Amino acid sequence: MDTRSLNRRRLVQAVPALALSSLAPWAWAQGAWPNRPLRVIVPQPPGGGFDFVARALGDRLSKQIGQSVVVENRPGSGTLVGTDAAAKADPDGYTLLMGSVSNIALNMGLYDKLSYDSLRDFEPVGMAVSYSYTLMARNDLPFNSLKEVVAYAKANPGKLNYASAGNGSGQHVLAAALWHLAGVDITHIPYKGAQAAYQDLLGGRVDLFFDLSSTARPQVDSGKVKALALSGAERNPMHPNVPTIIESGVAQLDLESWFGYFVPSKTPVAVQERLRSELAKVIAQPELQETFRSRGGKPLSLDAAQTKALVRRDVERWTKLVRDIGIKAD
Predict the structure, then answer these.
(1) Is the pLDDT of residue 163 over 70?
(2) 132-248 is a CATH 3.30.70.360 domain
(3) pLDDT value of position 23
(4) Looking at domain 37-131+256-325, which of 3.40.50.1980, 3.40.50.300, 3.30.70.20, 3.40.190.150 is its CATH number?
(5) Of the residues 7, 51, 97, 319, which has the fewest C-beta atoms closer than 10 A?
């Protein structure tokens, strides 16, 4: 064999070896995942629904994978600051987002120039639990059903009002959608958080308020407010005698606020699959499911395809509805 042929042969043999050597660090990093702590960005302050679910999952996931899972609260501009930070994080499998209907679905319709696209920039890892909302009325409001409220509002436009935890909050969007579909004019009074809204509802200074059923329950059970309707597709065991919005007959509307982990969409597929597998084991734990039920939640058991379908459905449905109604976050 001449020198030229020998060199060519050596070059052909060397190319695959070089390719493999260049991939080796990446392959090692994939195989070693996770080799350091994970962080979960929560786009809300400590103490709320986002934070509770993030920590409940994180504590158990940490034990499952043998690495710390650190919850990082990044509130600001509603849920925008934290969600944007997660979208821009390195897609290495070490940064997760606590996602919900609020920051994943509703924001897509609330903002004209959103810094992220929920369907393009994130992939769902697993959905753990959902919560319905309860429509409450001040105790001395002379109506005992949603149907009666709507009938009065039709005859008296603008006379009733409803509170929310702020412009663009889940409480605001759900209520605005309901009144729009029911064809009534009820005045919106935004507050800075649910606590301030409750103070005026309990004090009789506002007429109506939607809040998550889990936090509404103590007020309803104490008799301080009246529960008129639930936002879920089916009744909530915490309020078994309260009909759903659909049952009331005033609008074909349902909304449950689901919560789950998401990762940046460019996270390696192998890491996504490992995360889904480990998180699925956590979500299936009976003790965790009972914890969610005791707080008014409905544990979810969805595979990857069902989870993606749920997210896409709610993003598309609520983006259109929010834009059709003209609801804005500010």
Answers:
(1) yes
(2) no
(3) 42
(4) 3.40.190.150
(5) 7
